[in-house]
Structures are given as structure tokens and as C-alpha cells.
């Protein structure tokens, strides 16, 4: 038997419980109408299909199908084919998987009954050429291609960030208002922003308006355009730096959905779509795999306990993964063990030391800030509150919030010497935040109340639907070489006078940090009350 025939025969043997209810389709000649009122019925069964001859499939699909399948299997995150590229049908709804994680695309035919597949537009992630190697003889050409691809992504319409700074101010002051004095907390405003923007698409009426008010967006069209531009303007995956944003939909195969919503989420939010039986652990396992792939396995301790709610109608997930290297790495030989002055008492920590030019230092009325640059991937800002002030109090300070939301830094050159020694504790911690109470304080109330929530755009059977859970899990870690951070927000919709000049800054007591993207968007904000906690 030839290799191609053997490959296709193995595909035909895949357990039908692990084949996705996903179809990529954009052809007007297909049987399902592109009418905006089209309904995707996961429960409706179709007739049986005969097994197709594998040799015939191979001859018709050729090397392109094989290459596409292999490429998708080995890539570290789920990539999707273009609109109208392929169709997957299945017996029992589920998700096709491989050893390396979820797989999309490919033609799989089964003998048993099949369910009606979802027809939707599926996204393609932007492609950025690898950052050129300096030893490459054609460096100039490679750099030009890299720069042009990056410039195209960053060239978004003027005003696409309008409202985001005000949104950040509102959510940061709310989420960090109740951090315990001995607790650490890290939060991604971007992950929540994307999750709420997608939730707004699935809602209507007062429910949608309350979400838009928190997002500081005037209408759903503006919110949609801004979310797409923010996604594109911050995406980075060039082999040197990573800022990966991922969105996904997880559908219950026993429910029906409105086609228009699925297409909007796929095309405008780059959302992958899966369908299956949330009662089956195999479906939850693919959900966990997807999160881990999108976040570089940083959240495995969290995802090990994640399961799809059997009563859910749809679950939305939004991830942010950041990995960057310091422009000037810390030298491990300079590390020292010294006390960190936590509220509960001193605790010995390992501190890294580096010398920073005063142009990377700022001083406000209630804080001192140091910026640590990264190679082409943004920066990390560390804010040390004034003596006697807690990080939580600092995150209620107007000047500090303005600094966190402003890409440009105004430096008080007279406040610093030419060079400042910076001592930063190594840390690695995570936070799990139940977001409902915070969002209710911000004004999102109807979405959580069955009978009041309006999720009409999601399903023709939307009566009684509401947000049954919304939480975010985030992890951040820094060492001598750089910083990594990851976050996932999961929304389940179901039934139910200036200080004296300083020569050094020691972050040896509770402080605030921020990770900012290359183009000035706050990605993560955190409080370190005890690096060893």
C-alpha cells in the first residue's frame, strides 16, 4: 500500500467521537444559505455517506492536502484554512485531535450517520517572516520583508485605541481594589477586553449596552472594528518575540446557533470554532489542549482542572501569551539574597541587579518607575509606591494610572543621576480571578441574570440564557533573560514637592508592574506584595 493511501486509511479509522463539528465554507454554491438569518443546527442528522475511495481522494486532493495536514499538526497553535477550503463531517460530535493538539481542516469521511456540520468563516493567523539572522548574507532583503509585514499589521486606522485607556482605568481600579496585603495579583486587561467584546456580539439590547459601556465603546460596529485592529496591531510571532492573541468558541452540539454570529466572531475576532458534547471529557480535554497551546503551557496548573460546563450553550475563551527578552539581560553573577519588606514581615528573596540609564526612569508624586526594555516586543514597567503607600492605593492614583496607560514617558532628568542601579526580585506567580462581582460593580448586571439577559444574536433558543461564569487565570514570571506572561479569560453562557534625587531603586517592598506592548497597549498589570508567596 502506498504511503498516501495508508495515511488516508488511518484518517478513516479516527474515532468518530474525536472528529470536529466544524466546516470551513465561504462558497455561495453550498447548500446552506449565507442569509444573515441562517441557523446552524447541531442536532439535526443527515443521511449516511458511503466511504470514499482513498486513492480517489488522494488523487483529487494531492500533495496540498497532505502538506496542510502536516503543517497544522506540527504548529504550536491551531491554524485554520481559508474560507471554502474544506469540510469535516462526523458521527458523534466531538473534536479531531492529534498528539500535538487540535487539528483543523482535512477531509475525513465516515460510514455512519453524520450530523449537519457548522458552516462558517474560519480565520488565518497573520504571517510575519522570521526576524532576520545577522549572519544571513541576504539580511537586507530579509529585514525589509520582516519590516513590511510588521508595518502592515501595525498600520491600523487612526483612533483604534479610543476608549481602551478609559476602560483600563475602570477595570484596574476595580480589580485591584481588594488585594490582600500579603497576596499577589496579576490581571490582563486585554484578555478581558477581547472576551467582553465577543460577548457583546452574542448579546443585544440593554445587555449589550452595559458591556459596551464598560468597554467605553459607542456601538457594536465601533467595538468590533477596534477589537480587530487591537488584535492585529499587537500580534507578534517572528521567532524572536511573541505576543500571541487567541480567541475561540466552544459550542454545545445539542443546541442551535445563528450563523451570522459565528461568522462575525471568526472573521473579525480570529476565533476558532469547535463543537461537541460538553458531557464528554474528550471535549474538555481538547479545550484544555487549546488553552495550553495558545499560552505556551504556562497555565497548565490551572487548565488541569478546567472542564466545559455540561449545561453550557457556548463558552468563549480569550488568551494572551507574551514572551520577551530583555534588551540588556541581567547577569546571574550579580544576583544577591536580600530581604523583601512585605507587610507581614521581611522575607528573603533573590534579587537581580542591572544598571539603567536615567532615560528609563520616571518619578511621580507618589511613585518611582523604572522601564526595562525588551527586544522588539514592548517593555516592562516597575512602579515603586512612595513610602507608606500600598500598591493597591497607587492603582487608585490618577497620575499612576495615566502613566500606565501612556506609551510615551516624560522623564524628569533632574530627578535622577546618569545611571541608576535597579534591584528586582525574581518572581513567578499566578492569579485566578472570578470576575462577576467586579463586572457587576462596573455596571454589567443584566448579562448575569436569567430572564433579563438578552443573548438573541447567539441562538433562536436564547430564552433564559445568561453568563453563568466568567473568570480569568493569569501567570507572570521574570528571570535574568526576560519575561513571560499568559492569560485566559473564559466566559460560559448557559441557562442560568518632588522627592530627593535617587541613585538606586530597590524593589524590596510591595510594588506594581505593567507589561506594555510594542505600540503602547497595556497587556498585564500586577501587584507584587511578596515575591515568594
Can you give a write-up of this model?
With 533 residues, the chain is an alpha+beta fold. The protein has four domains: 3-120, no CATH class; 123-155, no CATH class; 158-325 and 428-495, Antithrombin, Chain I, domain 2; 332-426 and 500-528, Alpha-1-antitrypsin, domain 1 (Roll), CATH 2.30.39. It contains 13 helices and 26 strands. Strands 10, 11, 13, 14, 21, 22 and 23 form a seven-stranded mixed sheet that branches. A six-stranded antiparallel sheet has the order 9-26-25-19-18-17. A hairpin with a 2-residue loop joins strand 5 (97-98) and strand 6. Helix 1 (3-12) packs across helix 2, helix 5 runs antiparallel to helix 6 and helix 5 (189-202) runs antiparallel to helix 7.
- What's the N-to-C terminus distance? 59 Å
- Structural class of the helices, strands and pairings? alpha+beta
The total strand number stands at 26
Mean of the pLDDT scores? 77
Most strands sheet:
7 strands, mixed
- What is the beta-strand fraction? 25-35%
Number of helices in the DSSP assignment = 13
Overall radius of gyration: 25 Å
Shape: globular
Tell me, what is the CATH class of the largest domain?
A: Alpha Beta
Number of domains: 4
Name given to the CATH architecture of the largest domain: 2-Layer Sandwich
| CATH homologous superfamily classification of the largest domain | Antithrombin, subunit I, domain 2
Share of residues in helices: 25-40%
Q: Briefly note the CATH topology name of the largest domain.
A: Antithrombin, Chain I, domain 2
Unreliable stretches (pLDDT < 50, length at least 5) are 2-36, 43-121
Oligomeric nature of the chains: single chain
